Amino acid sequence: MKPAFLLLLALAGPALALPSPELGVYPDHPTARSRSVNEILERTSTPEVQLAPGYSAKRQEIVQMYRNFGIDLSLTPKELRTFLPRTWSKQTPQPLLGPYRQPYSVDSTFYQPIPTNSPRVALPVGYINSVSFAARGGTNTQQGFIIADKNDPPQTLRRLDDNQILRRRLPLNILDAIPAGGTDKHLTIVDSTDNTVFTCFQAKLSEGGGRLTCKYTAGPTHLGNLGDQGGGTNATKIPNLAMVLREGEANNPNQPIPHALTGPIGQNWKAIVYPGLGMDKYIQRVNTGLVPYGGILQLDPKLDLKQIQVDGRSLSLPARRILEAIQTYGFYVNDNRPDRSLPGSKGTSLSVWTVVRAEELSADRGKNLQAVQAEVRQVLNQNTLYVVPPVVKKS
What we know:
Layout: H1 4-10, H2 31-34, H3 37-43, H4 55-68, H5 77-81, E1 121-122, E2 128-136, E3 143-148, E4 154-159, E5 164-169, E6 186-191, E7 196-201, E8 204-205, E9 212-214, E10 216-222, E11 261-265, E12 268-272, E13 287-293, E14 296-299, E15 309-310, E16 313-314, H6 317-328, E17 331-336, E18 348-357, H7 369-382, E19 385-388
Parallel strand pairs: 2-18, 3-6, 4-9, 11-17, 12-13
Antiparallel strand pairs: 1-19, 4-5, 6-7, 7-10, 8-9, 14-17, 14-19, 15-16
Helix pairs in contact: 3-4, 6-7
C-alpha cells in the first residue's frame, strides 16, 4: 500500500516530482491538540484592531482546519524551527548550472501540487480585489536576480544592520540587476562556481558605483537544499528565489508554470505556518487578515480557466499561466505590503513577485501590464479562493 502522503499527491494530477523517500516527516504540533481554537485565536489577535464583518468567524474556521491538520498557528518562529524536515533529496528538478529556474530539492513544497483532497477553507468572495506584478519596468519592481560566474571576482559588500563587511563573488554588471522601483529592493545573487544563493535587502551601490550595501542579508545557502529556509529577505524567511516568476514562464504556450508563486498581501494575520518562519514587525497594527504568514492561497481548482472570459475575451496567456499556478501549486503569502485595495472595498491587495520585464507579462494580443493585472484581479476577485495547509510529508 502507498504511504498516505504519496496517495494524497498522486490524486493531485501531474507534478514535477513526488516527494522522495528521503524527505523527512513534518510532525504534528503537540499544541495543535492541547490548545483550543479560542486560545489560538487569542494568541494571534490584536484586541484593539477591528476585523471586517464575518472575519472573526472565518478565522475560527481556519484555525480549526489547521488544528485538524496538526498545526498550531500561534507558535513562535523559534518553536516552528524545531519542526523543520531534517532530511530531503539533494536532487533538483533540473541541473543547477544554467538558468536556475527550479534550483531547490525535488522535495520542495513549492514544486508539489496541492492535493485534490487537501483540507481547505473558502475565503469570502472578493477577498483579493487588487493585483500587481512586481515586474521590471512596472510600478513595483522590488525583485532583482543575477548570476555570478568564475570570471567575476570576489568583492566586498557592507551589511548595514551590523556594519559587517562580507566577501562574495559579484557580477561586474550588478547595477543592471538592482531593482529600479520600490524601496525594499531585494537582490538575489547566485554564484555558479559553488551553486550558492545570497540575497541582499535594500540593495544599492555607494556613490560613484562603488561597494554594494545591504540593510541585511540572507545566505549564502547551497542550492539543492529543501528550499524552505536560507536566502529569504522577506518577513517569512522563505527563500526569495524559491517561487519568484522567472523569464519565459508566464508566456510559454507549451508548458504551465511548474511551481507555486509568492508575494505580499495588504491585510495580514499575526499567525505563521510552515514554510513561513517569521512575520512582519508591524503586524500588531495591521492584524486584520485571514491568511497566516507562509499560508497558501488556492484558486478554485474546479474552475476551467480556458472558459473564463474578461470583457468578452478569453484570458491572455500570461494571466492564465499565473492563475493556473495559483490553482495548482498555490500562492504563498511571504510579507506585508501597503494595502492598495480598491476604495470602499472590504478586500485586500496582492502582489506577485517576478524578476521579469513588464513586457513579458503584457506581450499577448496587445495587452499591457495593467490589463493583464486586471484580468488576474477579476478572476481572483469573483471566484472562490481557499486557504489550504502546507504540502508536507505527514507519515
